[in-house]
Automatic annotation (TrEMBL):
<keyword id="KW-0547">Nucleotide-binding</keyword>
<keyword id="KW-0597">Phosphoprotein</keyword>
<dbReference type="InterPro" id="IPR015867">
    <property type="entry name" value="N-reg_PII/ATP_PRibTrfase_C"/>
</dbReference>
<dbReference type="InterPro" id="IPR002332">
    <property type="entry name" value="N-reg_PII_urydylation_site"/>
</dbReference>
<comment type="subunit">
    <text>Homotrimer.</text>
</comment>
<feature type="modified residue" description="O-UMP-tyrosine">
    <location>
        <position position="51"/>
    </location>
</feature>
<keyword id="KW-0804">Transcription</keyword>
<comment type="similarity">
    <text>Belongs to the P(II) protein family.</text>
</comment>
<protein>
    <recommendedName>
        <fullName>Nitrogen regulatory protein P-II</fullName>
    </recommendedName>
</protein>
<dbReference type="GO" id="GO:0006808">
    <property type="term" value="P:regulation of nitrogen utilization"/>
</dbReference>
<dbReference type="GO" id="GO:0005524">
    <property type="term" value="F:ATP binding"/>
</dbReference>
<dbReference type="InterPro" id="IPR011322">
    <property type="entry name" value="N-reg_PII-like_a/b"/>
</dbReference>
<dbReference type="GO" id="GO:0005829">
    <property type="term" value="C:cytosol"/>
</dbReference>
<dbReference type="InterPro" id="IPR002187">
    <property type="entry name" value="N-reg_PII"/>
</dbReference>
<dbReference type="InterPro" id="IPR017918">
    <property type="entry name" value="N-reg_PII_CS"/>
</dbReference>
<dbReference type="GO" id="GO:0030234">
    <property type="term" value="F:enzyme regulator activity"/>
</dbReference>
<keyword id="KW-0805">Transcription regulation</keyword>
């Protein structure tokens, strides 16, 4: 089992959700986060004054999947989140050692 974590632009969330639902992934956790990568933020003008925005708003999606689904999930997220411009985000894959569904007590693959 793996956790696929993606950091994407906020306006791409619905497209990514629809892409994941289309391939049979129905559960995810979404968190609003702020950060920066290579672009190191940007500058904006507010009331005539220019200021630097160091941390850009992003959305973090976490999806627990069976190991055999990882490549399909990555492709679905990448194709739905891609704009072709700087700041599209990143995808990380983390090993998931154990999972428990609290309501039923199901374990590991049955829990996800």
């Amino acid at each position: 089992m793996k956790i696929v974590m993606a950091i994407i632009k906020p306006f791409k969330l619905e497209e990514v959700r629809d892409a994941l639902t289309a391939i049979g992934v129905h559960g995810m956790t979404v968190t609003e986060v702020k950060g920066y990568g290579r672009q190191k933020g940007h500058t904006e003008i507010y009331r005539g004054a220019e200021y630097a925005v160091s941390f850009l708003p992003k959305v973090k999606i976490e999806v627990a999947v069976n190991s055999g689904q990882v490549d399909t999930v990555i492709e679905a997220i990448a194709s739905a989140a891609r704009t072709g411009r700087i700041g599209d985000g990143k995808i990380f894959v983390i090993n998931l050692e154990h999972a428990v569904r609290i309501r039923t007590g199901d374990l590991d693959a049955d829990a996800i």
